[in-house]
Amino acid sequence: MTSVTEATDPSAQFHALNTRVWANGRHLVRCVRVIQETWDVKTFCFNAEQSIMFFFKPGQFVTLELEIDGEQIMRSYTISSSPSVPYSFSITVKRVPGGYVSNWLHDNLKENDELAVHGPVGNFNCIDHPAEKVLLLSGGVGITPMMSMARWLFDTNADVDITFIHSARTPRDIIFGRELEHMCSRVPNFNLIIICERTEIGQAWNGYRGFLDEAKLKLATPDYLNRRIFCCGPTPYMRAVKKLLIENGFDMDYYHEESFGATPEEASQDALEQAELAVKQAEEDKDADTFTVDFEASGRSIQVLPGETVHAAASRLGLNIPKACGVGICGTCKVRKTSGDVDIQHNGGITEEDLNDGYILSCCSTPTSNLSIDG
Q1: What is the reported pTM?
Q2: What's the CA gap between 26 and 364, in Å, rounded?
Q3: pLDDT (tens digit, 9 = 90+) per residue, 10-38?
């Protein structure tokens, strides 16, 4: 018999027997809040119909499964919230001029909308790389994984000395400014530095101006050579940071950057382009050993040359395997092989458990024998 307390206490819905734990895969979620962070940045907060504890490593990301103008689109975004608040998660998105998905999210995604997400995945996180002293470096919307890390360290009262240096274009472009100032005011070993590239008419700014350089870095954190560094931002920003650190003798084994969004050109080509290259190679080298990939669900097979990915082979057959990043980061293109072997060059988008169960990422897996795919 249900007790009066159980019937009336809202927290009863979070009883352990009714609560599931998030794991890498596809999940249906609902947007429960939209927060306008700055004039061109919004945070979208999600939870699930049935209580799910969204455990993830601060710095990881999810891939959204969207339908825009009748077309399925997959796009990955870093989680900006912390797993210390486990019954929901958030992503923070900047509106980009001409950005197809970011503009659609800003203009269309609203409270109570449902969508599917894949994940969480990603090697870039502060759990796998602990340290007594950390330096968080971010530029623009690259602050999102840094914010997840900072929130986690703050909420868990971690004994970690934190220096957080964020670079923004102008004062009105500072994301999470008030929350960062709050954390800095409450924790003695949390040092916050914000650098604005410039100011606009009517804006007051008393902090650093310009770009992060050696002088500002040494002023802000004189012991940066003794810290573990996490960095995320536009590619030019991260390139400049790496150059600065290398020139000053930093041990790059202690440097970690968010590689998502900075995919190598050769790996980010569309699957159809890869397929065309494979066909040309086949014509030029007809004596090369070939392997056969069987797609069991469709009953179709195709011969591939070594070096052609499973995803490219499927595309040549007209089979659609959802894909987002193209370099084995997001995990969207996961399929299960029932026989055969592959060379998989992923970047954290699949777990050891999934690999042991026969799953592969089709975008970065090349057959090394005849292969059968359950799909």
Answers
A1: 0.73
A2: 20
A3: 444 444 445 677 876 778 999 999 999 99
